[in-house]
Amino acid sequence: MSNVCFAFGPQNSYLLNCPSKWARNNLPVAIDRLFTKQPPIKDVYELALGPAESYYIGYKDADNKLYCMNHGLPAPLEKHLSVNAKGFVEHDIPTTMITLGPNSSYVVKDKNKMQWCGIPEPLAVRLRSSKTAGTKLVALGVDNSYVVVNTDGSGLRNISDKYTRLEELLANMKSFAEIHYLSLSTFNSVASSGTPGDPLFMLVRKNGSSEGLMPDGHDKNFDDITNSLPNMLPAPAPAPASTRPQARGKSSSSTSFLKMLSGAAKAANLANQVINGGNGGGGGGGGYSDGNNYDTSGFSAGLQQQTWSSTEDAAGDPIQ
């Protein structure tokens, strides 16, 4: 396992995935079987959980090949994540990020391309401006709330009256460059350790610290995973050697070394009770309605770099 992935769905369903372990609860049957089969899967790249057991999962199986699977997603999203005439998917599974919002809205992005549908106009304007290369992550939440983090450390958010604790955390950040991962749930909840009505979320910083709201009674899983998060800050470059001037026919040099300080992981033990499931699920989505797996190990680079064509959904909103 090498990735960080947190996904929240209806009825207290979730996956907490860090580089060394994972915890899960009440996942759709087809996804849960991936963890219980022998041998089980090795890693999860992305998971999105939506209403009525809709989902997308991209993963590495025991054979070290990459697969993806989905069910019940919005039709435009399923179309653009479907297999081509040669039987291969055209999105890059290891870098795919999908967030599902209310009313069948979504944003999907990989290293080559990005697409969205039904999102608030200020967010769409930001994505048009930053484009794929300038967008690090997007999270859609309840009632058209959202957070976007750009690669330059800037960002845009509209969460203040929905995710009150998260708003505090983001408002106190010097730069969004601190953020490694963020997941919002689009399923309303009552937070027993936070403001009543706050939906679930998970924020992971690059230094390995984290904070979030979990379903009531699941704090042990939260602690186990967040205490295992590594420091994801890049290691500092070694200091250059410095040479003293020669004196009296002898030369001497000294090299200084920087000490690497490991970040202490800080995990907040917050809990909440999920109620009133909404449309969509923060942190993932995409796949195939027949539930089949697709081997992408034979992927050609040309397929991965193709541009997605524009279509329109049933409501007539353009897909960007």
Could you explain the architecture of this structure?
- With 320 residues, the chain is an alpha+beta fold.
- 15% of the residues lie in helices and 27% in strands.
- The chain is built from six helices and 19 strands.
- Strands 13-15-16-19-14 form a five-stranded mixed β-sheet, covered by helices on one side. Strands 1-2-3 form a three-stranded antiparallel β-sheet, covered by helices on one side.
- The longest helix has 14 residues.
- It is globular.
- The protein starts with a strand and ends in a 16-residue tail after the last helix.
List the main descriptive attributes of the protein structure presented here:
320 residues; alpha+beta; five-stranded mixed beta sheet; 15% helix
Sheet with the most strands: spatial strand order: 13-15-16-19-14
| Estimated structural class | alpha+beta
Give a quick account of the main beta sheet: strands, pairing sense, barrel closure.
Answer: 5 strands, mixed
State the helix count: 6
Order of helices and strands: EEEHEEEHEEEHEEEHEEEEHEEEH
Taking pLDDT < 50 over at least 5 consecutive residues as the criterion, the unreliable ranges are 247-320
Distance between the termini: 33 Å
